[in-house]
Each structure stands twice: as C-alpha cells, then as structure tokens.
Amino acid sequence: MPSPVDVSQNGNARHAEAAPSLFEIEEDLARLLERPRQVNIERKRSFDERSFSEMSMTHSPPRQVYKNSENSSRVFDNMVGVYSPGRWSGIHTPRSTFGYEPHPIVGEAWEALRRSIVNFRDQPVGTIAAIDNSAEELNYDQVFVRDFVPSSLAFLMNGEPDIVKNFLLKTLRLQSREKKIDQFKLGDGVMPASFKVSHDPVRNYETITADFGESAIGRVAPVDSGFWWIILLRAYTKSTGDTSLAEMPECQRGIRLILELCLSEGFDTFPTLLCADGCSMIDRRMGVYGYPIEIQALFFMALRCALFLLKHDEENRECCDAIIKRLHALSFHMRSYYWLDIKQLNDIYRYKTEEYSHTAVNKFNVMPDSLPEWVFDFMPTRGGYFIGNVSPAHMDFRWFCLGNCISILSSLATPEQASAIMDLVESRWQELVGEMPLKICYPAMEGHEWRIVTGCDPKNTSWSYHNGGTWPVLLWLLTAAAIKTGRPQIARRAIELAESRLLKDSWPEYYDGKLGRFIGKQARKFQTWSIAGYLVARMMLEDPSHLGMISLEEDKQMKPTMKRSASWTC
C-alpha cells in the first residue's frame, strides 16, 4: 500500500519517505503558472493539427505554441480553443461568451459543482464523484480521474485553470508511488483510478490515498486513467496557451511512462490494446474484455495528444517514432475492421468460414450465425458505427457511446464515418436517446446472456447501469461530436431533454429503462459528472470555440502505408 503524505494545516508536509523533486519545485513554479503565456493566435496550423507524417526527428522544428487552425469543422471556422473565459453575470454564475442568458438551471449546476470541490493543502485538487447524503459513501467521496474530466473542462471553459493544473500535478505525483496488488507490482506508468483526501482534526494533518485498482471491484487497474490524463493535459495547454506545465521534465516523463505500457513489444498481432473487463468507465463485468472500442479510441486520442505535448528532442525521439508508427497501424485497423454499416453487415452475413490463406476475406473467422438478430433492424440504410470489440472468432456488435464519440473527436473516424455515426444517432434517436440522453451501450443483455456474461450482476440488470442504462454525463461527448460534424441541432435537442429533468431529479448518476424514463435504482443523486457534463455541453453549444480543447482535426496526410493485408488472419 502506498504511504500517505502527512500535511499539517500550516502547509508543512511530513513525509514517511523523502519528498520527490516535483513537490519541491511546485511552489517555485507557482508564480510562473499563475499567468498563462502569451497565446499566439496567428492563423496557421497548430502543432497537433499538422500531419504526424510530416514530423521528422532528424530536424527538430522550433516548439510551436498553440496556434489557430486553418481548417476546423464544416460549420465553425474558428473552433480551436482560445483562452476565452465566460463573463460573469453574478457570483459563481458565468454568462455565455456570446451574451445569451443562461438557462435557469445553469446557476444551480455551478453551485452544485463547486460544492463538490476537494481541497488539499488549501488548494483545490479535484471534485468528488457525488454528494449524496442519503446513500452510503462507498468510494463516491473520492476524486476519480475519468470523472474529473468533464469538471475540468467546465472550469477551463469558465477561465478557472488552477484546479486543473493542481489535479494534473497531484495525479502525476501519485503515479510515482509504488503500486502493488497482493505481491504483484504494477507498471510505473499506471495512473490511479481515484484518490481520497482525508483530514485528521486530532493530529492536524491531511493525507492523500490513491487507488490503483487494489480496492476496485474485480481488482482491475484503470487502463483509461492514463489516457484521460494525457488528453486533459493537452486540453489545459490548448485552453490557456501555457506550455510550461507540459514541458516540465516530470510531465514529459509521466507521458512517456504511460505510453511505454502501451507501446512495448510482445505477442500482439494487432495494434489494438488487450484489456480486461472493468478497466474503464464500464468498471464491472460486461463482456468488454479483449479489445474494447472505448479503450482503443482513447488510446488513439492519447497518442495524438502526446505528439502535441512531447518535446521533439533526442530524449523523446524513440517514443515519438513509436507513436507515429502505432497511429498509422491503429487507424487502419480500426477503420477497416471495427467499422460497420449496411454494406459491411451484408458482407459479414455472407462470410465463408475456415479460410486459410493470404487471400482470406473473413480474416477473423467470424461465424455469420453469431450475428445477433437485433443488429439487422438496428442498422439504418444510411449510417454506421464502430462496433464494441473485434478479436479472433468474435465481434461484439453492441453500440458504445463513449468509444464512438471519442472516435469522432480524435478523428479516428474519417469525416465520412463521423457523419455516418451521427446519421445513426438521428435515425435511432428513440433507442439511443429516448427521453433522456444517453445510452452507454445498446442493446441491453437479457435472460441467459445476462446471466452468463455479467455473472448475474444485480446492478447490471437489463436497461440499467452499464447494461443499457442512460448516463447524462455522456451529453458533453454527444454535444462535442455533433458540433464537430456540423450538426448542432442534435446537441440542442439532447440538451433540452436533459434540462427538462436533471435539476428536478437532483442530478442522478444514471437512468433506467429502454427510454431512460426512471431514475436508476442504485443511482447516486448530485453526481458530479452529470452536473459537469451538462455544463460543458451547454457552454460548447453557446461558444463552439471551446471545442478546440477536446477535438483534434483530421490528419489528411495520414494514409495507411499498407493495404488491407490478407495476412492478418485468425
């Protein structure tokens, strides 16, 4: 177990172990980090918007500080995130940058979000998962890395970057701790799933205790935490224009450690990451083990963000070369083998099996009889999506919201695929949105399948929680994807649905039922990321320039170096 850090109220730390260099320099950097560097908004391509095919480690170009993009979405020409905090219309109540009056529940949402803030050494370091005094706390009183992402985006969009900077530094410090589950040591790059700040009024000190999976359900390490941390660091840098945080040696090393876990060579025959059940937002047994779309999309986005954040010097040369190679292979694999539309569905339906040669068409030896009946009715004539999982003799045809939205935001999806995903959302609005946005996956498992796959999990019954439940936090991802694809009307329609119920239902964690009509049977009230997800969606809709901090433009020069090789057989 990691040893806690003892901190008295006067701010003097007492460590059981020697203090690392990061904390020693935090205060020295405080003055530098108070003011963001001057942002260059010259209309040129920003570093991350350049093709990574152009990048050469032989000639390291000057480090470019955040610039606007020439090409953004089809609708908004200037949607790269500039430092533009909203104007204040009252205490803790921001007003739209464009002068729109906020919806009546916006003020209530901000007050609820601020109540969830956690302080350590008198500085805000995150937001707890939920403030629901009517239910047992369990681990809802902790700061989760993935849960804090929408909160951090809300604060960045509102011109309050300090809490985000503090969170990034504190979680980076936690990464350096020794991580053990029983007698097994986890990799150095693993980020915590969550951490808890505890205060002892008798001894007058505070401690931070991190959970790397040793306390989680199923004892699974959070694969997504490191990816979200990299994505959030890039969002902070884009929003503030301040590169000094990302350029700290500790941050550069932290990025490399995360990616070394993913880019190391082994027995893999695919560029996707092999994962256990429960390693991401779906943190219970739900049949997503293997190569789940959520992890692959986050992996792709984190790789692209890392290229933006890493200094292109000799120390990072090997890592950047590995990132570029993996991005090429991963984008080809995902776009080719995970994509499903009416044509591809028909091709799978007609697959032959037991093919063995370089000319095989059914490369994963998928049995056509394994196609679920529901997918034929679910697939519209116009539209498509990235399926949940692809591995030998197995395809999970379920729709997963987070993976598909991140695929759009990261430009893992081609523009045509991104448009098709939004076509699907519009065509299957009743199934995916219903009366409250948004289904985490579709459809739900029922009966014998539910018993076998979930192990009779009483929390993941049909159309509840992760098993076809409705999660308001996903609203911000749908909104971002809708704006990027030039369909803000989809976001507006979903936001209006959420506004009709979220406040009066006390901001629940999730909803149950095919249409999302009922508050979840075990849902916490005042769930922080439900609150923050709504605020981020509302602010992005009112000021689409905020999209730039969480969206990456397509790399038009990224063309597969290989054809769809028949040698990738199973």
Structure description:
- It holds the Pfam family Glyco_hydro_100.
- Its EC number is 3.2.1.26.
- InterPro entries: 6-hairpin_glycosidase_sf, 6hp_glycosidase-like_sf, Glyco_hydro_100.
- Belongs to the glycosyl hydrolase 100 family.
- It contains 18 helices and 19 strands.
- The protein has helices spanning 21-34, 104-115, 145-157, 162-175, 223-240, 244-247, 249-263, 293-309, 317-338, 342-349, 374-378, 401-409, 415-427, 429-432, 447-454, 475-484, 488-499, 528-542; strands spanning 5-8, 13-15, 87-90, 93-95, 117-120, 123-127, 143-144, 180-181, 184-185, 194-200, 205-211, 339-341, 384-386, 389-391, 394-396, 399-400, 441-442, 511-512, 518-519.
- By secondary structure, the protein is an alpha+beta fold.
- A five-stranded antiparallel β-sheet has the order 2-1-11-10-7.
- Strand 18 and strand 19 (518-519) form a beta hairpin.
